[in-house]
Specification:
The chain is built from 8 helices and 19 strands. The chain is α+β, with helices and mostly antiparallel strands and 308 residues long.
């Protein structure tokens, strides 16, 4: 006999403001315990140094986490120019420092220009990318370094928000970028271009896909709700599973067409888009999942949620 899953079978997306100093997985496990949820997953790691938007998917919503992994992100960050560290952030040991007081605000503005648009980044050895099954950061901690292929990313916006002159020059930047962009690599590359080195001292994700920081709840607020026994208020924080994909076209099906789709069969729907992925729901609004338009115009199921 199969073992009964522990926890409540809740479904939805929680927008967590990840606390400082905690890994994304640790934050996920804490939230999962607070909700007493049977199944949960996060949508892309934030370093312990980073805070901000971390969407957590519970239950059937985990099936759509990939769409948030692939989504654009936005960050606010502070770079220290004049100091390089092993990890590219404030947690690593200093490996080089120099006097950056001669660098002007216009120097930084000019250097930032070359990082806007499509750029190639070499991931840090302290990233979570895997090499032969091992995360790079684990190899780095053993003193190993492996060759990393550069990755093409797009910096859609890169603004200099604050400039604080000094031997260790501090700049606050705002970044909008595609998935897979490493802010620590951006700080290191900017420092290299200015000839002084650089690293990230603070990082806050302000947006992930359609979700922004203003919509997030802190871990402390969740703990207060849980301590008061107010599970209904906690559950009310969960967004529907399709909130992660609400930019996809919506196609509604009759009860009959929905039945066949749930059986794994493509269905024909009038007035559907001609191609691409679509959200699929019944006429009464019940969300079924994600489908793909086939060449013959039918909608084939790709990711369906399980309903009772």
């Amino acid at each position: 006999m199969a073992r009964r899953k522990r926890g409540r079978p809740i479904n939805g997306i929680l927008l967590l403001d990840k606390p400082l100093g905690e890994s994304s997985n640790r934050a996920l496990q804490r939230a999962k315990r607070l909700f007493d949820a049977s199944k949960a997953g996060h949508t892309g790691s934030l370093d312990p140094l980073a805070t901000g938007v971390l969407p957590l998917c519970f239950g059937e919503a985990t099936k759509f986490s990939q769409y948030l992994l692939d989504a654009d992100k936005a960050y606010k960050s502070t770079f220290i120019l004049g100091v390089s560290t092993e990890t590219g952030d404030a947690e690593g040991a200093v490996i080089q420092s120099c006097d950056a007081s001669a660098i002007s605000q216009s120097d930084v503005e000019a250097a930032l220009e070359s990082f806007r648009g499509e750029i190639d980044q070499v991931p840090s050895m302290y990233s979570a990318i895997k090499h032969e099954g091992q995360p790079l950061y684990k190899l780095a901690r053993k003193g190993q370094e492996v060759e990393r292929k550069s990755r093409r990313v797009v910096i859609k916006r890169l603004d200099l928000c604050e400039f604080r002159a000094g031997e260790q020059l501090e700049v606050d930047v705002y970044i909008e970028c595609t998935k897979g962009t490493y802010v620590r690599s951006l700080a290191e590359d900017l420092g290299a271009q200015l000839g002084c080195g650089g690293h990230v001292s603070a990082l806050r994700r302000t947006r992930a896909g359609p979700f922004d920081i203003e919509s997030c709840i802190t871990m402390a607020a969740l703990e207060d709700l849980q301590a008061s026994g107010n599970l209904p208020a906690m559950d009310a924080l969960l967004l529907p599973a399709d909130a992660a994909i609400d930019t996809m076209p919506l196609v509604k099906l009759t009860e009959s067409a929905g039945f066949y789709l749930r059986q794994g069969q493509p269905v024909l729907v009038s007035n559907a888009p001609h191609s691409g992925m679509v959200r699929v729901a019944l006429d009464d609004g019940e969300f079924l999942g994600v489908g793909e338009i086939l060449d013959d115009g039918r909608i084939a199921p790709r990711r369906l949620i399980v309903t009772n």
